[in-house]
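We recall that each integer encodes one residue's backbone shape. We quote one record:
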Amino acid sequence: MPHDPFAWTDDAARAREAAGLVRTLRPRSPEPDVLDLASNDYLGLARHPETTRAAADAAVRWGAGATGSRLVTGSTRLHEELERELAAHCGFEAALVLSSGYAANLAALTALTSRDGLLLSDAGNHASIVDGCRLSRGETVVVPHADPETVGKTLDVRRPGRALVVSDAVFSVDGDMAPLHALAAVCRTHGAALLVDDAHGLGVLGPGGRGSLHAAGVADADGVVPDGVVATVTLSKSLGSQGGAVLGPARVIEHLVNAARTFIFDTGLAPAAAGAALAALRQLRRSPELAD
């Protein structure tokens, strides 16, 4: 009898069931008759008429898909406008839109590190950060949750080379905030870069929903984030659409365009998603009380 190369999946399924860890897909109705407390649609913009109309208009004008990677045919004026306005809203010089927040974290972590570099990752970080650290091929040190003192001590004894500290801003499991002001100070003292995943802060925290870095006082009085800080965001939560972005100094974003594999080799974000995110962002900027 031929060998079954996937027989091991039956054992894995039994182990999951015994542990109570079986995941199931449950398609939802387009007209839910219950109060949804599980959604990431924090500001209720996913179904806002302006957002859905912008998505529809973008699909009609630009097509259902981006048609290629951003470096070939996948960039549209919608992507460019979204990047410019997203960077301005969050206090950064430039932005780069990718197909998901997961891809944004992989892009930043793999392109901004090196084999001889050091990554310091908070123990409570999201799975996309964990995977990005693994793919970076640099030395990764997992530091205790929300512990700037240990981050500083680890940086004190590091070998020469690049150092990048990465942390969620709002931790998705515990719901607490990272001590971003203290982390930024430690990084500045030790010449390390700081990467902040603000998936759960954009649109919710800071004046007008400008994000966790503003809420924590990392941005200056003019709302500008320091050059040593890079952020990633998702467009699928407060902005009610889909996609992700990396925000930072223009030279960092240019480096990602040329070095980030999840940007270079991935089809660009669909125009409908870019258009919807841009419309939602403009609603937030026009009505900052949404964040309040």
Remarks:
- The chain has a mean pLDDT of 96.
